Each structure stands twice: as structure tokens, then as C-alpha cells.
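Quick question, first post here. What does this chain look like in 3D?
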Amino acid sequence: MGTDIPRRNRLDLNSPSELAIHGAIQEVEKEGCDVRLTEAVTLMQKAKDLVSDYIDEISNDKQN
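> Answer (accepted):
Ran it through. C-alpha cells below.
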């Protein structure tokens, strides 16, 4: 049984842009608890997901 972890969930395989967004999320989370901060984190996570989708897509295209 494999434990294949998606590339996007492994920081050691993230691109510089994915790591930058991850770092920004970590910094916002240090600010405390507020609905506006939660919304900001949610939007940044969506942005990271979109970047990851793009990177995964171009990586798959290069392999084919």
C-alpha cells in the first residue's frame, strides 16, 4: 500500500511561488483570530491551489 503524497502537499517539492504563498499564510495566521484574517487565509489558500494546479498541469504536459 503506497503513501503517495501529492506534490503540492510536500513543501520540499513546492515551487518558489507556492512557498511564498505558504509563508504569507503562516504570517497572517500569527496575527491572531479575526474573521477578516480567516478570509485572507482562505483567499491565499485558493491562490496557492490555483498556482499548484497550473504547475501540476505544465508538469504533466512535459511528461507526455
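The mean pLDDT is 95.
The radius of gyration is 14 Å.
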